[in-house]
Design a protein that fits this description.
heterodimer, A: 123 residues, alpha+beta, 3-stranded antiparallel β-sheet, B: 368 residues, 6-stranded antiparallel β-barrel, 18% helix, globular
Chain lengths: 123, 368
Amino acid sequence: MTDLNALSYTEEHEWLSIEGDIATIGITDYAADKLGDVVFVELPQPGASVTAGDVCGEIESTKSVGELYAPVTGEVVEINDGVVDDPSLVNAEPFEGAWLIKVRFSGEIEGLLDRAAYEGITA
Amino acid sequence: MPDSTPRETPLAELHAALGASFTDFGGWLMPVRYTSDLAEHHAVRRAAGLFDISHMAEFTIDGVDAGAYLDYALAGRLSALAVGKAKYSLVLAEDGGIVDDVIVYRLSDTGFLIIANAGNRAAAREALSERTTGFDVVFADVSDDYALIAVQGPHALGILTAFEALTGLGSDLAQLPYYAWTDARFEGSPVLVARTGYTGEDGFELLVPSEQGAALWQRLLAAGAPEGLVPCGLASRDTLRLEAGMPLYGHELSRETKPAQAGLGRVVVDAKDAFVGKGATTPGPDARVLVGLVAEGRRAGRAGYAVCVDGEVVGEITSGALSPTLGHPVAMAYVDPAFAASDNLTIDIRGTHVPATVTTLPFYRRTS
């Protein structure tokens, strides 16, 4: 199981796992629950540049469309093709199998929340 | 000021205990899903689903003029409806716009029940009660007295037939035609069992006194669970009715929509001498018409998205989703009449134009 306390979070309901200069990014169980059954995921291509705070992908459920905001600025180094092929992973295992993108980032990351703070905004 | 706090149905505590997520719909706090929209959708197509639709409004009409009154107040000829039968109809405005879409049940020679949309309860009540002037009828809003529970899906008949708590059935459910009702009893209370629904599957809707709603829900769910009956929320109800090509007021129908635009011209009986909306129901030659659209891929056009030809906007989607049953996007849209049979349309999905083809509604039709 993923240690949820070891992850960082954003107010846009993404989670980040940071190792060195690589941030692995997904959306939280709270966001997945709010969306309902996810049926389509669009992610940036590997090599694409993303800018913190900008929309870099889309997550569609049967009921609605959610936007994926880049929480960091940098270059996409890997995307999770497994989630593109089977979007239901976002609901089934948002913190494990359904990571979305890995970004090589530069500079300080601003505005991240720890688990307690994130639970504070979703309670 | 109207109270903006959403109301709860008599079953609200049961929904919460089942883990439902809730949404505000038509002024009511309603279950949107219990587990998964898709699982609930598939359960209704393959087995059975249980819906709390107690938010819907119920009105009764009683009196020797009841049939004549309904012929005047509604678009159809309800005086011709046989006792025991039900019929889809429209409450029109003087200008031919749609105030609400309703199902009318004939309870007796002089008594009718109307089931109306929750969000239109006040508007429909106002229109219908005003129209009683000059008719020997009594109109009553009995919405708060009843719970309404739908059992929908290919296993619905088997579940209800085997449901021992439902007694005194006026007719054999297997023999009950679509859009007909029969009376029954549940734990000493009267139940109206109608073979109607909003999913495109066979199924029934059960109207019970509100204080019996929770008990009926619990016992039905327990009795039907071995047959695959699961509680279903409004999210699956919406994708089910969309696949079945059924309009939803506020999406496909509105005060600005005339019946023929929505493909409901057949509901209006123009031959009647007098009815509210008579002479005003024909849309102008340029009025947009409702069409079904199908597309490839997995990105769905959704309500409010533009429909285009060569980059020019020619219409707008009113409901759309990735069809869970069909596996491709489907949508209902109003388009300029010149493009109502076009195979050259695109849907503007947040800046990307996705090709779409007009198709005949419904998108999905059950095989048996």
